[in-house]
Amino acid sequence: MTHFDHERIPERIVHARGFAAHGEFQVYQSMKEFTKADFLQDPSKTTPVFVRFSTVAGSKGSGGELARDARGFSTKFYTDEGNYDLVGNNIPVFFIQDAIKFPDLVHALKPEPHNEMPQAASAHDTFWDFVANNQEAAHMVMWAMSDRAIPRSFRMMEGFGVHTFRFVNHKGESHFVKFHWKPVLGTHSVVWDEAQKINGKDPDFHRRDLWESIQDGDYPEYELGVQIIAEEDEFKFDFDVLDPTKLWPEEDVPVKIVGKMTLNRNVDNVFAETEQVAFHPGHVVPGIDFTNDPLLQGRLFSYTDTQLIRLGGPNFHELPINRPVCPFHNNQRDGYGRQTINQGQVSYHNNSLAQNTPETTPEAQGGYKHYQEKIEGQKIRARSESFKDHFSQATLFWNSMSDAEKEHIIEAFSFELGKVQSRSVQEQIVNMFANVSTDLTKGFAEAIGIEPPAMKDNSVTKSSPALSQENTVHSVATRKVAVIIGDDFDDSNVSSVLEQLNNKGIKTEILSNKLGTVKGNNGLAYEVNHTFLTADSVLFDAVYVVGAAEDKSFYKKAALFVHEAYSHFKPIAATEAGEKLLEVDEMKDSLGVIRGSASTAFASQFIEAIAAHRHWDRQVE
């Protein structure tokens, strides 16, 4: 009973709700020119990794994983030189420029203290009051109001190191670097109405997707990319490369793809691994170093500090999930949870009783040495003037979006600010984001009943196509299709269509009125995976309606299922018996709706429609 009474530990203040998996990383080619980091040298070498994905705002027990929120994307590399933690998000910038503001940001984002509402949501007064009065958040807010904040899957989500780090090579030469994870399946999202329904239908949607994908052998893959700027080019841009609220446009600083990470093993125990893993941006290896990014400097302190209370003391690095794979020796002793049993009488340096061991490993033998940055002048707490520009890159982001993505951003602002009770805060946000785009501001100002401000002079016309999810990879692999079938369905060529879908890596699941077996009019039979009661259209990427014999109950339920999928812009296919469901809203003539007899051509058209992910042109039909 005593043990049971102590089974809970403090949850993370942010990133509390997370899920993780094991995997491996391999570099494509040696990065010797830029860094001496050992795990980035040999293409034949495999480095074990552990990756934790998470939402930011909600508590560990928050209701669902499709909250509008940033997502954590943190990777622990178990290298031969020690652990390297790439602690990132799925958004490349952050709300604030100085770490001292982080407690204020989180206090504003979390449920309001007087009533502890709302959970895992930013749609409330204190968050938007913070934004209005800390306008460096403008760029991050644009990302948070975009489709990036409601990803389809962890497997279809980009990751970013956010901060500017240094690569240091064997010659002691330094380059500035930003890290990217590019999902092989492309970057895709759901729509907001769909996200809210998923939270109700399956609050474990993202972790279930990751778990089942690995269980099925559909291993999630991400390519590691780096943006590199030579030291002498630091001041050649219209932004400060150390400003965490700014990104480096990929058209100006291309992303060099250098390796691939594959997640191929689920955790054995969520608490022992996912909950006890301790990431820290200060866990670096020789060849990777820090910069004077003011937000990064604060995080280098904060992460150790939080693990001390969460994991009970300074020995959290000895927990199995945090333990390096390389041998290490030091003079640290005692403390809560100590697992190493040190032998001998010496626990200090310098010493003669143990021949001066352990001692710091010399750089020539692989020891860590910080980059020696030459500094001239007085060191003061100040930033370059470009840190004061809070809107240019927010406008760049807006300019880079497709028409559908812009509409979703307007809808997101309208929803979030529609939940805000303070008229003053609403007005402040409208005036603030007029500095980003008049079209944006007019769109959501009208929705919340605020008079849009007069047009402001915004000279930023630049865009970055790489920021739009419209320009991502479009793959059908692992997409889930609900196949709606009832008894006495027309089974001619159905098996051929399903075979073609499965051959492309598409997952087909049979859905009907009841569990058991459904039989076609020629004897073909399928085992039913779901009923209309246990599944919902929001849990699938596309719908294939085979139909049934005359069954009013079947078609009534199927009609609701198909109509909802259609309203979320998903691909829909229907053969003759199922076409009757397409009469509503003139679905049969819409983009992404495939109909006709089951055939090779029918299947090919459906596969092409699935690859598109969503058919956004329906928004203006």
From TrEMBL:
<dbReference type="InterPro" id="IPR043156">
    <property type="entry name" value="Catalase_clade2_helical"/>
</dbReference>
<protein>
    <recommendedName>
        <fullName>Catalase</fullName>
        <ecNumber>1.11.1.6</ecNumber>
    </recommendedName>
</protein>
<dbReference type="InterPro" id="IPR018028">
    <property type="entry name" value="Catalase"/>
</dbReference>
<dbReference type="GO" id="GO:0042744">
    <property type="term" value="P:hydrogen peroxide catabolic process"/>
</dbReference>
<dbReference type="Pfam" id="PF18011">
    <property type="entry name" value="Catalase_C"/>
</dbReference>
<dbReference type="GO" id="GO:0005829">
    <property type="term" value="C:cytosol"/>
</dbReference>
<keyword id="KW-0349">Heme</keyword>
<keyword id="KW-0408">Iron</keyword>
<dbReference type="Pfam" id="PF06628">
    <property type="entry name" value="Catalase-rel"/>
</dbReference>
<feature type="domain" description="Catalase core">
    <location>
        <begin position="1"/>
        <end position="357"/>
    </location>
</feature>
<dbReference type="InterPro" id="IPR010582">
    <property type="entry name" value="Catalase_immune_responsive"/>
</dbReference>
<dbReference type="InterPro" id="IPR041399">
    <property type="entry name" value="Catalase_large_C"/>
</dbReference>
<dbReference type="InterPro" id="IPR020835">
    <property type="entry name" value="Catalase_sf"/>
</dbReference>
<dbReference type="InterPro" id="IPR011614">
    <property type="entry name" value="Catalase_core"/>
</dbReference>
<dbReference type="InterPro" id="IPR002226">
    <property type="entry name" value="Catalase_haem_BS"/>
</dbReference>
<keyword id="KW-0376">Hydrogen peroxide</keyword>
<keyword id="KW-0479">Metal-binding</keyword>
<dbReference type="Pfam" id="PF00199">
    <property type="entry name" value="Catalase"/>
</dbReference>
<keyword id="KW-0575">Peroxidase</keyword>
<dbReference type="GO" id="GO:0020037">
    <property type="term" value="F:heme binding"/>
</dbReference>
<dbReference type="GO" id="GO:0004096">
    <property type="term" value="F:catalase activity"/>
</dbReference>
<dbReference type="InterPro" id="IPR024708">
    <property type="entry name" value="Catalase_AS"/>
</dbReference>
<comment type="similarity">
    <text>Belongs to the catalase family. HPII subfamily.</text>
</comment>
<dbReference type="GO" id="GO:0006979">
    <property type="term" value="P:response to oxidative stress"/>
</dbReference>
<dbReference type="GO" id="GO:0046872">
    <property type="term" value="F:metal ion binding"/>
</dbReference>
<dbReference type="InterPro" id="IPR024712">
    <property type="entry name" value="Catalase_clade2"/>
</dbReference>
<dbReference type="InterPro" id="IPR029062">
    <property type="entry name" value="Class_I_gatase-like"/>
</dbReference>
<keyword id="KW-0560">Oxidoreductase</keyword>
